[in-house]
Amino acid sequence: MDIRPFDKKRDLRAVERIWYEVGWVENPAEASHVEEFLDAGNCIVGCLNDSAECAVVTVPGSICYLEQELPLCAVTGVTTSRIARKQGFARVMTALQLADAATQGAAVAALGMFDQGFYDQVGFGTGAYEHTIRFDPSTLLVDRKFRVPSRIHKDDWPQVHAAMVGRLKHHGACTLSPSKMMKAELSWGENCFGLGYYEGERLTHFFWSETKGENGPYTITHMAYRTVDELLELLALIKSHGDQISSVSMQEPPHVQLQMLLKQPFRNRRNTKRSTFENAHSSSAWFQIRILDLHACVEARHWHGPAFRFNLRLTDPAADFLPDDGWQGVGGDFTIAIGERSGVSEGFSEGLPLLETNVNTFTRLFFGIVRASQMAASDGLLIPPALIDDLEAAFCLPRMSTSWEF
């Protein structure tokens, strides 16, 4: 398998061709931003006949585990051409990128999946549900004044990136470090616009949206705010467009239950069913996540309840796709201590209950995506009865939300 680092002069046109073939770009205007996207990350390519036919891109960032930020590897692109399918490139190259990120200090990896199942092969577990709500903005129950906003343009990407980095964080919030990622993200999509507010030169809170036609819908793709009050100002601003725009679609902000701020949401769903401006509420887990550094992750859990310990036998399927002379994943036998100062030690300790699982499932438990008592049904994992109550209590966490799609 011929895998090597991406070389812009040698491989850019080939990667653009791959993106055309998988439907990520559809015209020269969109393809012109592929270079910016690749410049922002670390890309490797898999080749057939010396031509790049698969590309895997990662970027560094961070992810919030409760109040603590952990180093993140965001897998922002896994694309395979029409002639290189089923050759094993995507699995092997993703595993190699994970190994490189772990060596560089990343504790967690995350990606947006094309479907559930494929990335399980390299240790990813399905993330939490994200809520997407489409509503008539005039039905927002936000009764407050808002200031005249500033227009946000694509060329304002440095300020937009800074606002996303400085936004109010929450459990699971992801941040992508390279600012050029935002330049590429704002460049894609038709009829986009942004509105927001500044303090001096600093953009404090904003939303970025795609729109269609005279009456919408608006599709909000990015939103940032530092306080709940700034969020409410943005919602009031969105409401002000309700005299013309018939529907707005957005991911539910993690700091509010958006349905509570809508007038007669069920009536409006019934009355707009199957229309162009249908009101709707859907949930799906679009992302997957996995631990890259077991020690760093466990140490981030500061549990103020009764301390407990257990033995953990962990397997990591990514090891099947990695060379023997480097990072081999996070598999092994460990003793896990959960308390105000949690930690990991190598090997088992006598007399402790044993939990046997893979990194996919343990990551889901650790981030609070699935409760210990549910894991037998959803993950096929039987937990020792002596552990269930402790794990239920220690990992009963707020619903995680990335609030940054990638």
Can you give a write-up of this model?
- By secondary structure, the protein is an alpha+beta fold.
- It has 3 domains: 2-112, Aminopeptidase, CATH 3.40.630; 131-283, Aminopeptidase (3-Layer(aba) Sandwich), CATH 3.40.630; 292-394, 2-Layer Sandwich (Nonspecific Lipid-transfer Protein, Chain A).
- Helix content is 26%, strand content 30%.
- It contains 12 helices and 19 strands.
- It has helices at residues 8-22, 28-31, 34-39, 89-103, 157-165, 180-187, 228-239, 265-272, 294-299, 359-366, 375-378, 385-394; strands at 2-5, 42-48, 51-65, 68-80, 108-112, 125-126, 130-135, 150-152, 174-176, 192-199, 202-211, 218-224, 248-251, 280-284, 287-291, 308-315, 332-338, 343-346, 354-358.
- Strands 1, 2, 3, 4, 5, 6, 9 and 15 form an 8-stranded mixed sheet that branches. Strands 8-10-11-12-13-7-14 form a 7-stranded mixed sheet. A 4-stranded mixed sheet has the order 18-17-16-19.
- It is globular and about 70 Å long.
- It starts with a strand and ends in a 12-residue tail after the last helix.
List keywords for this structure.
30% strand, 406 residues, Nonspecific Lipid-transfer Protein, Chain A, 12 helices, globular, seven-stranded mixed beta sheet, 3 domains, Aminopeptidase
The number of helical runs is 12
> What would CATH call the architecture of the largest domain?
3-Layer(aba) Sandwich
- Percent helix, as a range, is 25-40%
Say how many strands there are. Answer: 19
Q: Unreliable stretches, pLDDT < 50, 5 or more residues?
A: none
Structural class: alpha+beta
The CATH topology of the largest domain is given as: Aminopeptidase
Distance between the termini: 28 Å
- Rounded average pLDDT: 96
C-alpha Rg (nearest Å): 23 Å
Give the overall shape.
Answer: globular
Describe the sheet with the most strands.
8 strands, mixed
Percentage of residues in DSSP E strands: 25-35%
Integer tally of domains: 3
CATH class of the largest domain: Alpha Beta
* CATH H-tier superfamily of the largest domain: Gcn5-related N-acetyltransferase (GNAT)
